[in-house]
Amino acid sequence: MSCASPPVTRRAAVPCSVLYQKPDSLTRNPAHDPQICNRRARAPARCCARPRRYYNVLFKAPPLRRGNRNGSDGMDTTQAIKNWRSIRKFKEDPVPDDKLRAVLDAARRAPSWENVQPWRFIVVEDQPTKDMLTALAKGQKFVGRAPAVICVAGDLSAWDKPKNKAALLELVEAGVMKVNEQIIDTVLLKDPAFCVAENGAATILARTLEQLGIAYGFMCLEAVNQGLGACIVGAMSNELTGAKRELYQSVKNELGLGDSMVLIAMIPIGFPDQNPPERPRKAFEEIAFRGRMGHPF
Predict the structure, then answer these.
(1) What pLDDT was estimated at residue 93?
(2) How does pLDDT run across 200-241, given as a tens digit for each residue?
(3) CB 183: neighbour CB atoms within 10 A?
(4) What is the pLDDT of residues 42-67, one digit of tens each?
(5) 63: DSSP letter
(6) What torsion do the CA atoms of 144, 226, 224, 227 make, to the nearest 10 degrees?
């Protein structure tokens, strides 16, 4: 019997200049040393031994989970994307609470900038309030005819530094982010690249719109997965359009939205009573490139 040790399997060397992924962006390893990396062919271990500092140390990637293929409950994600249509005609059947909860929970689980989660969702099912929403949406009647309307609101005060810090500390406590409180105070809450509040009201509104758009995108895909139809309604009176201010304020009061809250969109939702044709989309070659614009993917 041989007493030789089994061969040791080593991971392939990866140069320091490789892009490391963190939530919501990609960044080069700031520990990159050109002199060492230029010699990586001769000494790859030295290059790869460089510590992953700053951005890539801040965020700890969670274990990956595979999609629900091969017999598990729910629709394949790619198929749900392909099946998406904006539905404006619904059956009269009410939407069961378990389906509404699944749709709302999908939005809750959407990616969020520094865990701020500035979104709030109000499910409206009573006809008088739906009629108000129809008027707010410039008379789009299908809004009031849907069994339910999910009002998507953004909390601008969620970006205030104390709330932002609390959200970051939740990431630290959950083990998602490895950083001490000093880095939070001196970098993440000071650097305008990280801290939205450092950039003023316009950036706060823009980031809120971005975050809510991601959330209701998740929401709409889960609606398809639940056998429901939905439509994203953004043509409405609010702070962005400045129209019908009195009606908008009345709707905010009815929904219990305070001064820091902005009603961004409405999502009429229900069981679809139509099968619209697929909307035309730009050719893949028009929108996707490799390396730079104009270089085919």
Answers:
(1) 97
(2) 999 999 999 999 999 999 999 999 999 999 999 999 988 888
(3) 17
(4) 444 444 444 444 444 455 555 545 44
(5) P
(6) -80
Pick from 23, 22, 10, 21: which is nearest to 49 by CA?
10
Strand 25-28 vs strand 19-22: parallel, antiparallel, or unpaired? antiparallel
Write phi, then psi, for 160 (nearest 5 degrees). Answer: -55, 145
Lowest mean pLDDT among 63-72, 127-136, 165-174: 63-72
**Angle in degrees, CA 173, 210, 217, rounded to 5:** 90
C-alpha distances in angstroms, 142 versus 91, 92, 130, 151, 216?
11, 12, 10, 15, 19
Q: What tokens appear for 187 in the block?
A: 């970098």
E strand spans, 86-196: 119-124, 148-155
What are the boundaries of each domain within the chain?
A: 19-58, 77-159+196-270
Write out the two tokens for 90: 């619904």
Residues near 122 by beta carbon (within 8 Å), at least 6 away in sequence? 150, 151, 153, 255, 256
Q: Which of 268, 271, 216, 218 is nearest to 95 (CA)?
A: 271
Class of domain 77-159+196-270: alpha beta
Phi, psi dihedral angles at 31 (to 5 degrees) = -85, 5
Residue 237 and residue 98: Cα distance in Å, rounded?
31
Q: Give the chain's radius of gyration (CA, Å).
A: 24
